[in-house]
Amino acid sequence: MLLDIREIPFSRFGSYFCISKEKKSGDVYIRDVHGGDEAPSRLFKLDVLKDGVEQEFVVDASEISLKLRLYDDTDCYAEFIIPEEDELHIEVKGVELRLKAEKVKYDTLMELADGMYEYHIYPKELKLMIKQLKGKLMVDAPWNIIGNDFVDIRMADGHFIIESYRTVYKEKDYVDFQTGKNKVEKIYQTWFSTMSKGNGNYLPSIERASYITWSSVVHPHGLLKDYAMYMSKLWMYNIWSWDNCFNALNLGESYPELAYAQLKAFIDTQDESGAYPDFVNDKFVSYNCIKPPIFAYAYEKLMDQHDYFKDTDRVRTVYESTKKIMKYFDEYRTYPGRLPHYKHGNDSGWDNASLFHAGMPIEAPDLTCFLIKSYDILAKFAILLGEDTEAEMFKEKADLLFILLMNRLYDEEGFYGRVGKNAEKIKIRSSLILRLPVIIGYRLDKSMMEQLVDDLEKNFETEFGLATESLSSPYYKENGYWLGPIWAPVTYLFIDALQSYGYEEIGNRVRDKYLKLTLVGGMAENFDPLTGAGLVDTSFTWTSSVFLLLLRNRN
C-alpha cells in the first residue's frame, strides 16, 4: 500500500515513534506519542539537503518503510524503518538528512562519545540516543547555561539509530538496515493475513484498516501494563473507553490476548466508585467523563468468537468489574425515582448531539438501554458462574429499569430525554441517539421496533449509512461531529441490533453502505453522510475495526 502520511502516520505495532506530514505547512516530522494527545508529539522536523542546500523531496511510504527521496534522483534518499519498537533506523544515501529539534527550555543534547548523542526531552520525560552506526553524523547544538539554543543534526551516507527510553541507555547490537526491513515486513504480513479475510473488492479499505489497527498499537509503558491500541497516532493518541470495546471485538478472533488487554486496561484502572476512566495512556488516567457500560456487551460477543474468553477466571473478572460500574450508575448517577443521567454529552460518546443542547444533567434512553442490556448479560454470566441468586437480582433490576424507561422516556412519538433538576421533557428529538433503544429490541414490542426502524429509514438513512442527526433537522450541520456525520461504533450497534432482532434487510443494507463508504472516505473518525468524505482524524482504529468486523459479517 502507498501510504499518505498526511492522512495515516507511518509507524509500527508497539512503537511510540511515528512520522507524519502536516497538511497546512507540508512539513514532515518525526513524532512520539508518549503522554497522550495533550503532550507535545513533534520531535524533529525533517529536511533533505544536497551540497548544503535544501531540496524538494518526495515521500514514498508503505507499511514497512518510509523514504524521503529527491524528485530527480531516486538513488538519493533517506529511508526510515522501525525494526524494534523503540528503535527508529535511518539509512541515508547521496544526500544529507537534517533533523531540527522542536525543543523547549530545558531540553538538552549532549555528546557522550564519537557519533553518540543523548537528548533529554523534558515535557515528555523521555530520552533519545542518537547514534551513528556508519556514515557521518554532524551536530550543531550551542549550549546556553540550562540547555541548547537549538539542535540541528545532520546525517549523511550511512546507517543511524534513534532509540527512546525513560531512564538509562543499554548498549546493544543493532541489525543491519536490510535485515531490519525484512523483519518488519514479516511481522506486518503475519498481521495482514489475519485481518484481510474478505471480499477483494474492498482491498484498499482492507489495506488501510489492517495497517491502521497494526500501527496504532503501543507497547506496555508507565501506566499501560499491556499492549494498547490507541484510537490514532495522528491526533487522538489515547486508549478511550467505549472505543476500546470495538477494537477488542475486531481482535478477538485472531488475537484474543490483545483483545482482552483492551478491556483489562480499564478494569485495572477502575475507580473505587466503580467508574471506568474516560481514557488511559502511558502517563495519565482521566475520569472527566464516564462512558456507557458496554464491556459486558462486548465480552459476550467475544465469547462467541474464541474459547479464550470462556475461561471462568476471565468471565469472573469482567463480571465483577461490570457489577462495579453498574453500582456506580445506580449510586452516583441516579436521583430517587428517576433514570440514570449523563453530566455531559462527552459521557455518552455523542459529544455535541442535539439531545444535549438543552443543558445538563440528561436522562437519556440510550444510557438506560445500555444498563438494561448489561444487567441482562450479567444475569447470563451469573448463571455461568453459579451465582443464581445474583442472576435473579440482575434480571429484576433490568425489568424495573425497563418499566421506568417506558414510563419516563417514551410516548406515542417515540423516545425522548429529560433535562435539569426538574427533569423537564426535552423537545429536541432529532438525534439518532434517541433511536438507540433498538439495542434492547428483544424487550420492545414489535410495534415499537417497527416505529424505530421506519424512523431510521425515513429520517436518517442516506446513501452512505445512518446520519447522526436527521437530515431535515435545524440542528443538522455539515462536518458537525455528532450533528450529522456517520460514525462507525453506532453504525455497528444499529447493524447488530437490526440483524439480531428481525430486521436483517435494513441491517445488511446499512452494513453494505458502511463498507462502501470506506472506499470513499477511508478510515476517518467520521464521515459526511451526503458525500461520504472522511472528516476530522483520518486514521482511526475503531473505524478500521468496525470495517473489518462488518466485512467478516458479510462473508
Indicate the topology:
Layout: E1 17-21, E2 28-32, E3 42-50, E4 53-55, E5 57-61, E6 66-70, E7 73-84, E8 87-101, E9 108-113, E10 116-121, E11 126-140, E12 152-165, H1 177-195, H2 203-215, E13 217-218, E14 228-229, E15 239-240, H3 243-251, H4 256-267, E16 279-280, E17 285-286, H5 295-305, H6 312-332, E18 341-342, H7 345-348, E19 362-363, H8 365-384, H9 388-408, E20 410-411, E21 414-415, E22 418-419, E23 424-425, H10 446-459, E24 461-462, E25 465-466, H11 488-500, H12 504-521, E26 526-527, E27 534-535, H13 541-554
Antiparallel strand pairs: 1-2, 2-3, 3-4, 3-8, 5-6, 6-7, 7-8, 8-12, 9-10, 10-11, 11-12, 13-14, 15-16, 16-17, 18-19, 19-22, 20-21, 22-23, 24-25, 26-27
GO molecular function: Glc3Man9GlcNAc2 oligosaccharide glucosidase activity
Pfam families: MGH1-like_GH
Protein name: Mannosylglycerate hydrolase MGH1-like glycoside hydrolase domain-containing protein
The computed structural class is: alpha+beta
Q: Would you tell me which CATH topology of the domain at 17-187 applies?
A: Beta-galactosidase, Chain A, domain 5
Cα(first) to Cα(last) distance is 23 Å
User: What top-tier CATH class of the domain at 17-187 fits best?
Assistant: Mainly Beta
How much of the sequence lies in strands comes to: 15-25%
**Radius of gyration based on Cα positions:** 25 Å
Q: Kindly state the number of beta strands.
A: 27
Specify the helix fraction band.
25-40%
Which descriptor suits the 3D outline? elongated
Mean pLDDT: 97
CATH architectural category of the domain at 17-187? Distorted Sandwich
Low-confidence stretches: none
